[in-house]
Amino acid sequence: MIDDLIEGYRRYRAGWTEAERELYRQLVEHGQSPKVMVIACCDSRVDPSIILDAKPGSLFMVRNIANLVPPFERDGAYHGTSAALEFAVRRLAVDHIIVLGHAHCGGIRALYEENQESSASDFILGWMRIVAEAGRHVHENCRNLSPPQQRRALEQEAIRVSIKNLLTFPWIESQVRAGKLHLHGWYYALAEGILMALDPLSNEFRSLLDGNEAK
Ligand SMILES: [Zn+2]
Q1: How far does residue 63's CA lie from ligand 1's centre (Å)?
Q2: 88: DSSP letter
């Protein structure tokens, strides 16, 4: 596997054209100025740069288990995601924050199965407690759905909770209120390769391209 990666790096280096060289020269000389922050899952199947065909320098990104945003807390704990948010909003002054969730999420499954009385973990379940209210919501309101449908409902509800948590950060809330920062909840249905966005009016997820994706 490592040999495959080194081979990949060899191809990458071979493909370094003058355009690439110039792009990185600009990014070093002027520094990065991404306009978009993405909070995505660690899942190896959901790489925002690939899905969004984004160039280096365009996405400021943090990836964690189940793409969660914790609430604003000043408790001296190690807040990697909150530190990334602070850098993006206060230093880089991004215009957009996207919480990018996805189907078949292992972190969400751990939370779902805990609700079904399952196994323990050192860190994962503690982290997933950030969206415990999403778990309760789905447990109470989606009893009539099949387990895979319930997990999808939980994956999407967790995005809504993360968006709500973003607004507990005072420097995010004030920028959103001033119309300078825009929050987006996106959901990637990975088996179909379809990206959906949370519609603020209906509070439902709809295909970002209005169902016009090429099959
Ligand atoms: Zn995931």
Answers
A1: 9
A2: I
Which CATH number belongs to the domain containing residue 143 in this structure? 3.40.1050.10
Q: Is the pLDDT of residue 214 over 60?
A: no
Q: Which domain holds residue 200?
A: 34-207
CA of 91 to the centre of ligand 1 (A): 28
Q: How far is the CA of 106 from the centre of ligand 1 (A)?
A: 5
Please name the residue that has the structure tokens 């080194």: 6
Strand order in the sheet with 182-189: 59-64, 36-41, 96-102, 182-189, 194-199, 204-207
Q: Are residues 39 and 141 in the same domain?
A: yes
Task: Count the Cβ atoms, other than its own, within 10 Å of residue 110.
Answer: 19
pTM for the model: 0.94
Q: Is 52 in the same domain as 99?
A: yes
Do residues 59 and 9 share a domain?
no
Residue 211 clears pLDDT 70, i.e. is over it: no
Cα 155 to ligand 1 centroid, rounded to whole Å: 9
End-to-end CA distance of the chain: 31
